[in-house]
């Protein structure tokens, strides 16, 4: 999944087409505001970032806004931090390029693009190759420090394995951490974006109040539009943290309604922390 941030419509279309030609899904933004909204809700593999950006649509682009967005992307925690390729018309100014790399960019390419080493396609392939190699090295180091592969896999399956013996225990917390909300599944902490947390919490609340009954997503105010996209994002986020959970415990009736098949007594919540989500807390209290 890629994010292209570019305020020039022609270049935005060009880079987007390049990403799509590589078989990658792509989202686009033309301002810092638009990019931050997407970054809050979607986990991207990499970002192609124009350094000269407007703060909002229709505003005048400035370099400092691009550098500010670069800092925000670099500061994303852990696995949410994408690879970053800076695109700049100031490629001949080595001070700008040096500043971008020191700030945390993985690479930069000059505009206008050429068809060689500094094309978007070449830069993307090189970035993904480097990140794949780094991930393999990290996995090898982890395995070396935590025991053999069998032990490591067993540790990572702890939450999933515990579900095999019965329904998982869900504890809704809702505390904000870097604009994400937390819950616990069999004692393991999960972090979801606010929209995904609230969507999952709606399913949990419905399961607690009306066990075995499906909830129509048309009745969920958090996703008044983009229902399918919101569900897909929630599913991917849950599967990344607890593989197998969605397919085992969430059912779709084929008509846009979903059911979290967890007994009501397996769903608990932190009343103090959930005060940040007052309407959800009110529904839980009624149950």
From TrEMBL:
Descriptive protein name: Response regulator, phosphate regulon transcriptional regulator PhoB, OmpR-family protein
Q: Tell me the GO molecular function terms.
A: phosphorelay response regulator activity; transcription cis-regulatory region binding
Organism the protein comes from: Plesiocystis pacifica SIR-1
Does this UniProt record's set of keywords contain Transmembrane helix?
Answer: no
The protein's matches in SMART domains, at most eight in alphabetical order, are given as: REC
Response regulatory domain: residues covered: 1-126
Q: A Pfam family this protein belongs to?
A: Response_reg
Entry keyword set: DNA-binding, Phosphoprotein, Transcription, Transcription regulation, Two-component regulatory system
Q: List the InterPro entries.
A: CheY-like_superfamily, Sig_transdc_resp-reg_receiver, WalR-like
Q: Name the GO cellular-component terms.
A: cytosol; protein-DNA complex
- Recorded superkingdom: Bacteria
Which residues are annotated with the PTM 4-aspartylphosphate?
50
GO biological process annotation, one example: regulation of DNA-templated transcription
């Amino acid at each position: 999944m890629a994010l292209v941030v570019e305020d020039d419509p022609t270049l935005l279309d060009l880079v987007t087409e390049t990403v799509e030609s590589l078989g990658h899904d792509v989202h686009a933004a033309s301002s810092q505001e638009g990019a931050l909204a997407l970054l809050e809700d979607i986990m991207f593999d990499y970002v192609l970032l124009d350094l000269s950006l407007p703060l909002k649509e229709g505003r005048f682009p400035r370099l400092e806004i691009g550098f500010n967005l670069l800092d925000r992307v670099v500061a994303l925690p852990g696995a949410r931090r994408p690879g970053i390729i800076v695109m700049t018309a100031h490629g001949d100014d080595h001070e700008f390029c040096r500043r971008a790399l020191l700030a945390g960019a993985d690479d930069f390419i000059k505009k206008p693009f050429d068809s060689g080493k500094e094309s978007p396609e070449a830069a993307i392939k090189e970035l993904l190759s480097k990140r794949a190699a780094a991930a393999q090295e990290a996995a090898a180091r982890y395995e070396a420090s935590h025991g053999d592969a069998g032990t490591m896999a067993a540790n990572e399956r702890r939450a999933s394995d515990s579900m095999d013996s019965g329904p998982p225990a869900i504890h809704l917390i809702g505390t904000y951490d870097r604009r994400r909300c937390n819950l616990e599944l069999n004692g393991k902490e999960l972090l979801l974006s606010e929209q995904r947390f609230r969507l999952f919490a709606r399913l949990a609340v419905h399961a607690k109040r009306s066990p075995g009954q499906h909830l129509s997503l048309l009745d969920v105010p958090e996703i008044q539009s983009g229902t399918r996209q919101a569900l897909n994002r929630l599913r991917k986020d849950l599967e990344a943290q607890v593989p197998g959970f969605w397919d085992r415990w969430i059912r779709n009736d084929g008509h846009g309604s979903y059911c979290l098949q967890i007994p009501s007594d397996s769903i608990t919540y932190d009343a103090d922390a959930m005060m940040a989500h007052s309407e959800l807390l009110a529904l839980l209290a009624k149950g």
